Design the sequence.
């Protein structure tokens, strides 16, 4: 076991979706000795940090430079939770992705190993590429074929950690389709819940891609969706449990796009209107029709809490956060949904 209450916890990407939710989960446990690192840009993601409690903030580049100059630069630093990365699956500057996602993670992980600091980092389910079956965190990494530069940058570090033994020191989390409060800055990488909510408020309807496979009806394509509150609770558990190697973090079940968007209409108390539109030609050959995380390793780590049912999670997100226009606050409960309005 790893005691998070001992020493400072550094959270990189702390203003982002998963990073800010992890700080929220830490705060709920009374943990506030937190050093936040991120790259604040022209977006409004700085607002996610306003309700959260932490000791200090600094730019991500300054974090690694100061650590490498002096191991005790931040006092008793005992844990690094690393979520800082470019998460855009449409980013085409591979050199930028490798510097930001691969090289930076290597430096931070190597420093953590030498310094004896607990290291947990975000990998991604995107590393599985076009696979639709047997998405196992125990798969031979050499068999995986990422489909975009973002996924490749994540996969490359997983391979490096496996080859050098870093995976026995730290824990890499393969997050599946995470959605929830504090994702408003993510532009096209926003979840379908947020995009659908915006469509409904603007037009009264939602657009979903048609199916091009006879075994899937329109809207019945499936994904493993997980609420960010659950993802954060699981992340803190894995950090405390001392788990090493790669771990899938998803709900462990595949649900349809219709399952995802229908609760939004109910939460907003508006009639359901769903339009099925043509999928762009360039996506059709790469599109996954069903994904589901195998979460055996997660359960074996001792995490036995139930995942928030999708309808409850979507309702919580819409009614408690999107409608009032607010972000996560340490006073917010992890698994309770207000009644639909």
Sequence:
């Amino acid at each position: 076991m790893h005691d998070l209450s001992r020493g400072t916890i550094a959270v990189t990407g702390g203003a982002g979706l998963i990073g800010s939710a992890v700080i929220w989960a830490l705060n709920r446990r009374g943990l506030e000795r937190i050093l936040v690192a991120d790259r604040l840009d022209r977006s409004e993601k700085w607002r996610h940090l306003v309700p959260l409690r932490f000791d200090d903030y600094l730019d991500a580049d300054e974090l690694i430079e100061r650590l490498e100059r002096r191991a005790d630069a931040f006092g008793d630093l005992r844990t690094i939770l690393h979520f800082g990365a470019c998460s855009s699956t449409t980013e085409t500057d591979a050199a930028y992705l490798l510097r930001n996602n691969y090289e930076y993670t290597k430096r931070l992980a190597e420093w953590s190993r030498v310094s004896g600091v607990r290291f947990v980092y975000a990998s991604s389910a995107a590393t599985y590429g076009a696979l639709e079956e047997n998405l196992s965190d125990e798969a031979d990494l050499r068999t995986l074929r990422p489909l975009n530069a973002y996924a490749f940058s994540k996969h490359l570090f997983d391979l490096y950690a496996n080859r050098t033994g870093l995976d026995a020191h730290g824990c890499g989390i393969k997050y599946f389709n995470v959605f929830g409060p504090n994702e408003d800055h993510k532009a096209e990488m926003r979840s379908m819940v947020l995009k659908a909510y915006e469509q409904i408020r603007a037009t009264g309807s939602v657009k979903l891609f048609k199916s091009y496979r006879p075994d899937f009806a329109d809207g019945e394509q499936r994904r493993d969706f997980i609420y960010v509150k659950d993802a954060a609770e699981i992340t803190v558990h894995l950090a405390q449990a001392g788990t090493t190697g790669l771990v899938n973090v998803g709900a462990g079940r595949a649900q349809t796009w219709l399952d995802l968007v229908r609760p939004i209409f109910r939460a907003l108390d508006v009639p359901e209107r769903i339009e099925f539109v043509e999928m762009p030609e360039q996506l059709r050959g790469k599109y996954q029709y069903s994904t589901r995380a195998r979460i055996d390793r997660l359960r074996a780590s001792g995490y036995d809490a139930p995942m928030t049912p999708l309808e409850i999670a979507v309702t919580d997100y819409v009614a408690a956060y999107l409608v009032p226009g607010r972000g996560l606050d340490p006073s917010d409960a992890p698994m309770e949904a207000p009644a639909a309005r």
User: Anything to note?
Assistant: The domain at 8-180+225-251+292-308 is CATH 3.40.50.720 (Rossmann fold). Residues 36 and 57 are 5 Å apart (CA to CA). Confidence is low (pLDDT under 50) at residues 337-341. Residues 94-115 form the longest helix (22 residues).
